[in-house]
Amino acid sequence: YTGDGIPLIPDNVAGRTYFQDAWATTDSWGTIRSTLSVSGGRLVVTSTGATSGITKSFTFSAGRSFVMAIRPLVNSTVKIQKLGDTAYKVITDAFSSEILAIYFGNAESSGVIAEIDAIYIGNGAYDTPALDRAGNGNNLTLNAVTPVNGKYGKEMSFNGSTSYAQASSPVIGTTGTVAV
User: Fold this and answer.
1) Among candidates 90, 86, 102, 111, which has minimal Cα distance to 32?
2) CA distance 145 to 64
3) Per residue of the chain (180 residues), what is the pLDDT tens digit?
4) CA-CA distance, 158 to 177, in Å (whole number)?
């Protein structure tokens, strides 16, 4: 199977809780020691103090996937915190909290620290399948899979909890799910 053609952000529209990839406004995101603006279709985070961040409240069911396409600027690290949860997560995760906080730890106390291209929250489902490299049409339906650069083009990365690839037709006489 190949991950070629699988978009970074899940493309099943019905499975989306929140999606933004063409920023025209700050879309009701709150700020923590930062200001927000929009430039070139991106959300621009400008720090006004150490450990800046942005927040937004959501209503959705547990186990949603989160994907963020971000360009950290300056010497900055990105941490995703699910408020009410003690663990920090980075870039892609499944979570159940209603308030999402994205923190930027930066070496400088002020200035532009990140540009966010896209944020996705949803069930992680794809309309784009993983294609059968043998050409037999035994393609896989995907959920919460991330396409990554591999030895032979794009390959698939699984998150260890909600990711799966499922055959839509019998491959060896039995339909099944590959869970990694």
Assistant:
1) 102
2) 13
3) 877 888 888 899 988 888 999 999 999 898 988 899 999 999 998 888 877 888 887 766 666 777 777 776 655 556 554 433 332 233 344 445 566 777 776 656 677 777 888 888 888 888 988 888 788 888 888 888 877 778 877 888 887 777 888 886 655 555 566 555
4) 13
Q: Distance from first CA to last CA of the chain, Å, rounded?
A: 14
Give the list of residues 6+ apart from residue 31 with CB closer than 8 angstroms, or none: 52, 53, 54, 55
Q: Hey, what are 123's tokens?
A: 């069930």
The number of C-alpha atoms within 13 Å of 124 and in the hemisphere containing its C-beta is 25
Tokens of 115: 């540009």
Beta strands, E only, 26-144 = 30-32, 34-39, 42-47, 52-57, 64-72, 76-82, 88-89, 92-95, 99-106, 111-122, 140-143
Contact predicate 121/58, CB 8 Å: yes
